Amino acid sequence: MADAASWRPVVDALALPNPVVVLNRRGRAPSGPLGDGYSLRTEIDDLHHVLDALGGEVEMFDWSYGGLIALEAAVQRRDLRSVVAYEPVSSPFGVHALEPLRAAEGDLDRAVEIVNRDVSGFSAEYVAALRESPVRPVLRPLAHPLAADLAALNAHEPAFDRYRDLDVLVTLLLGKLNEGAEPYGTAFEAFERALPQAQAPEVLAKHLAAAIRP
Predict the structure, then answer these.
(1) Which residue from 142, 109, 135, 110 is spatially nearest to 3, judged by alpha carbons?
(2) pTM
(3) What are the residues whose beta carbons fall under 8 Å from the beta carbon of 123, sequence distance 6 or more?
(4) What is the chain's mean pLDDT, rounded?
(5) How many Cα atoms occupy the beta-carbon half-sphere of 169 within 13 Å?
(6) Residue 25 and residue 193: Cα distance in Å, rounded?
């Protein structure tokens, strides 16, 4: 439920001298649709294409689904400087919401409600407030690809057994309120087990900057 524009305040807060490139994955304007045969492999290949275009020595920061994509790509590369994965997720994640999302195809307001209530666990009052807030027209188009995203996520088997062999600095970030809680905290635990060498900073902007600075 986010695109590149959603991350602009974080980028603006980073006191870093290097350029920052923020990507819109497929299904987020102005990037194209997910396309036929969409899978998590599609996302990994897209990321490889971007990294190749940028040229080595890239610092990657990725959130949620993007955290999984980044780590899966990282095990296939030797030209990264660091990977920061913020609340990465993997299968099983939000499986119970998949069929309701498919049934809500074309009803973007309903899709926004399902993701916020049944996946993220927000209250009915919070979701009702979203319907009346200025953010509603931003969230509606972001809900369009979510059923396909969720299906691809749950169809993918992560290469957890290869994460220990990553020869790049990896930082894992988890919001304090999500620690040990469904769904993000419990999903995070699988990455902690697979990446015993990873750090777990507490404050996003501070530790992201620390991980990137040489």
Answers:
(1) 142
(2) 0.89
(3) none
(4) 90
(5) 18
(6) 27
